Amino acid sequence: MADIFDVIADGTRRDILQLLLDRSSAGERGTSVSYIVQQLAVSQPTVSKHLKVLREAQLVSVREEGQHRYYSLSSAPLDEIDDWLIPFLDDATDVEPAGTSTLPDSAAHAADTLGRAAASAKHALENALKKLPGR
Length: 135
Hints:
Structural class: mainly alpha
Strand content: 5-15%
Order of helices and strands: HHEHHEEHH
Mean pLDDT: 82
Largest sheet: 3 strands, antiparallel
Low-confidence stretches: none
Number of helices: 6
Helix content: 55-70%
Radius of gyration: 18 Å
Strand order of the largest sheet: 1-3-2
Number of strands: 3
Shape: elongated
């Protein structure tokens, strides 16, 4: 299996993942290849090739209905990346150009850390809610 970072390094695959996320957030239970082709203005063979890579990396799942295939985002591998990245983000300090921050350095760092923790908690909660029966 390809390294997850290699998989998501490709811009077209990131575009597909974003499209699937947007459709899932809108309540769609899957997205057809033809819809992806239309939205991204990429050829069908190209979309199919990228969907295969995403499927092998377990970033998407496929549901077959007759001759149609509907793809959905599978966020578990991305959750693993998120879990891996969080410690780096907690220790990171953003360097701002002089005079752009109105907060003392310690308060700006605390606000940044709190914001990142809130975003991570929101992400974890959304994923937990998606796993509840009936959702």
